[in-house]
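Exercise 7. Predict the joint structure of the components listed below.
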Amino acid sequence: MTNSDPLVYIVDDDEAVRDSLSLLMRSVDLASQTFGSAVEFLDAYKPTAHACLVADIRMPGLSGLDLQQELNRRGVALPLIFITGHGDVPMAVKAMQTGAMDFLQKPFRDQDLLDRIHKALERDRKTRDSRRMAQKIRDRIATLTPRETEVMAKVVEGCANKVIAMDLGVSQRTVELHRARVMQKMGVRSLAGLVRLVAQAEGS
Amino acid sequence: MPKNTRYPRKSDRSAAELEALLTAAVDAIVLIDQDGSIVEFNAAAEKLFGYATDEVKGLSVELLMPEPYRSSHAGYMQRYLAGGEPHIIGKGREVEGLKSNGETFPIWLSVGEALYDDSRHFVGIIRDLTEMRAAQQQRHELEANLAHVGRFSLMGEMAAGIAHEINQPLSAIATYSQAAKRMMSAGKIEQADLEKACNGISDQVHRAGQVIENLRRFIKKQEVSKQQVDLNDVIRSAMSLIIPDTNAAGIKVATKYAEDLPSIVANAVQLQQVLINLTRNAVDAMRESLRKKEGIVIETGRFDDNRVFFSVTDRGTGVSARIADAIFHPFVTTKREGLGVGLAISQTIIRSHGGELGYRPNPSGGAIFTVSLPIEEEQVSDQ
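Solution:
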């Protein structure tokens, strides 16, 4: 569920590589934006776009690894595919360890790159969906009263109503009422559903 | 026994002494009169030029000279006898001799003037330089071979950067053609896109070809000859081999070219080799440095009145005082890979150009290697 067409960012200091990659994206009806340096990209990057990033690992100035570190620092979860020249395998390994999604050695087969781009875009979509879902759940949690929030926490922990009533110093009947309102506000029918929602909100 | 038979008259004795002297001399000696006719021709001259004394006596000394010396000789003599400046009298110079068998050979000729029998005479003392020249030639060839081997080992060190430089256009070519193919199979290729792909492919083929051509020129075995070159041009054309290497290491290179540099006599490829060597060292020294972004500076300029220079300045780890004196010796290295012959070969190359390669620490940290080269190398070797 995305609200925009997917976009492929291409960052490479080599004009011909950039140019040919953008033509390849056009050939499969993918929109792309190209940048000659990591700095240009960072200046222009909008976190709202549904996108993935294809970057050269070696560039003068800010390298691909530097770019990755900067994105990590900014908390940007953009899936990143590195394309590397000959002999960059150690660099690529390092990049994978710090969260790059994939790497390809130049010259590569177009299909290999496109497969990875589709995989990256799929991952970005999932990340965005689950972030959006988590936000929705957090919004619902925000509508609970403090007491309801307390009750929900204990319910999710697996406490029986009787135990909750004792802990909170209220009647079991009161706990049941709170619990019903929590289920209603959170939009779930079962305990399992509630547990899943809370886990989803905490997971993202 | 008459006195004069036991003790020859003074003039007879002098003649005998002169005869003995001429015969014993190791160098060829040729005496001519003011018309240029040969008067004396000693044993060494006979051996050197392949003529018997009797054959050449009375003939013009021009017989012993190949062109262009032969044609200009009479003119020189006339001008000198008419009170002109001596070109060769009283000093020596390197010229060529001509043997009876038609062979020419390098000689060192010194000429002195003598006045007797009321006429002016000239004595030429001739030393054969054939062996010395051969030895020099051999040394130059050895130096050229050494330089050639050095270039190969440099290429080995630069292989990663060069491979990358060829991979870039190959990668673009593959992508252009694959994009065009996809558009064609989808039946929706536009004229403009097709043109873009074709232009891209042909440009990139040319680019890859250039990288290989530059390499080929660099690796090629060089003539030992030196030519008039512009130092800035030499350095500019080496940059195409340097940039991939520095890019690969993520290090910037700045160049500062001095204007109005006089040309020098040099072997361009060998100077480029030295420059590349120094730049490689700078890259290695900066790889681990935190001042990477400050980069390497390559500079040209006037060293002093008689010399120009180029220098490579880095902000790397510098040369430790412990080995600073030894860095130009072969097999002295701090690198895990590499033989430690780069600087030694570079120094050999620069010295064969009559120049000097020197190191000094960079006051702001790092190293400065400076190559100074004489402006008028040709005249130095000609005298």
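Discussion. The mean pLDDT of chain A is 88.
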